[in-house]
Design a protein that fits this description.
With 244 residues, this protein is an alpha/beta fold. The chain is 34% helix and 23% strand. The two termini are 24 Å apart. The structure holds manganese (II) ion.
Length: 244
């Protein structure tokens, strides 16, 4: 099979046991289009919840198994922490062969200087969220959380999800999108001309200029609405719908 020189992106799969079809679609994607990609980037929130690499959740294990098969078959897979699965760690990397990336990360991709992010760090106008993020990303907080029994971590994670849902319903929608000034600053600081992120669940390709330079922001679609991925090659960006 010829290996097309295209790079695939997906994010916000929010996989969990409540939507087995989404995991099936993910596994089919990993065994199908992802095999032919030059690499696959998963930009955060692969899992609806990840309470530690020692979690034995069966649904998550199915997805990890599919990832391991793909990396063993030779497709490099990179992943970024989302706000749901920011505790993905070294054991996850060792188990799956997936390499975790910092957020944001700069890559030269098909000739275009590109910045990758989950996207939540760019939502700078959502102050309560940013405050929470800065706490749970501290190594000391994470060490304490991971030292709790699995059952306690699961209970805390579902309480956090309920809190997040309530916050999302209360917060003004524009404040939960990325801040255009933060986007401009990130592109200017890194010299990137393309930004790819997820998190906001507002799929689009936005074209604009930064200091007179044509730039674009690619927002990935949430998997639970319609499984899809974005393919990037020398010709540009296109969305690939996947069968569900
Ligand atoms: Mn997110």
């Amino acid at each position: 099979m010829s290996r097309a020189a295209q790079t695939l992106f997906a994010s916000d799969l929010h996989l969990d046991s409540e939507a087995p079809w989404a995991i099936d679609a993910f596994l089919a994607f990993l065994e199908g289009p992802a095999r032919d990609a030059d690499s696959l980037y998963l930009l955060g929130d692969i899992f609806e919840a990840w309470v530690g690499d020692d979690d034995d959740d069966a649904a998550n294990a199915r997805a990890c198994d599919g990832l391991a098969k793909l990396t063993r078959a030779g497709t490099p897979v990179f992943a970024m922490h989302g706000n749901r699965d920011f505790l993905l760690g070294e054991s996850f990397e060792n188990l799956t062969g997936v390499k975790l990336l910092p957020d944001p990360v700069f890559v030269e991709l098909h000739g275009v200087p590109t910045l990758l992010s989950h996207g939540d760090v760019l939502c700078t106008q959502d102050l309560p969220y940013q405050e929470l993020r800065s706490i749970v990303r501290q190594p000391s907080w994470q060490r304490r959380f991971l030292s709790l029994p699995l059952s306690a971590r699961r209970a805390l994670a579902s309480a956090a999800r309920a809190g997040s849902k309530a916050h999302t319903e209360r917060q003004i929608p524009v404040l939960m999108d990325v801040n255009p000034d933060a986007v401009t600053e990130a592109l200017r600081a890194t010299g990137a001309r393309r930004l790819i992120h997820g998190h906001t669940h507002r799929p689009a390709v936005h074209q604009f200029e930064v200091d007179g330079v044509k730039s674009e922001r690619v927002v990935l679609a949430p998997w639970y609405e319609s499984a899809s991925c974005v393919a990037i090659d020398a010709a540009g960006v296109r969305e690939i719908p996947l069968p569900r």
